[in-house]
UniProtKB/TrEMBL annotation:
Record protein name field: Uncharacterized protein
Protein species of origin: Araneus ventricosus (Orbweaver spider)
InterPro entries in the cross-refs: DUF1759
Amino acid sequence: MHKSRIPNEVFVKLPDASLPEFNGNIDNWSNFKAQFDSLITNNSTLNETQKLFYLRSVLKGDAKLVETQEDTFNSLMKVLIDRYENKRLIVSNRILNILNIEKIHLESARDLRNLVDTINKSLRGLKLLELEANEFVHQILINVVIQKIDKETRKQYEMSLSTNELPNWDKFIEFLRKRSQVLENTNGTHQQTRVKIN
């Protein structure tokens, strides 16, 4: 028997990452561009022809119809940036996504999760445009979101505050996450009880 040497580094093959697709929806542009740049644009092992091939392969819908005078990666990317990197429109859409969240009338784990996910997606999109939320923005967001949540959740939140100090944004979002989890757990218990009774 021969002693085999175990290498210090073990390489594990990860599954191939699928490339992000872009269908021309301006709300998805920032996320798409950040991911595509990370995987393809900044990949030094790919030449310009390969990058152009990958870029064309992920464009769908209206974005697939975009044409350039030159058939190069840089020219196509420039036209896409000129068309879809409309920061004013993107910021406006992100803010409206938060303001237009439907009011939750009854306690619902799913609705609370959707509310938190919509807010996080919008804030992440703004962050990609290098717009950071400050304390003033957080206080506005808290007051907007409080108007959207159901009466019982709002009551529970008010009861969780121990002082008259301004509420903290991260703690507020964490409260909503925990609240949706509690609702999910209690609804699951009720369903199981009904099944047993039947």
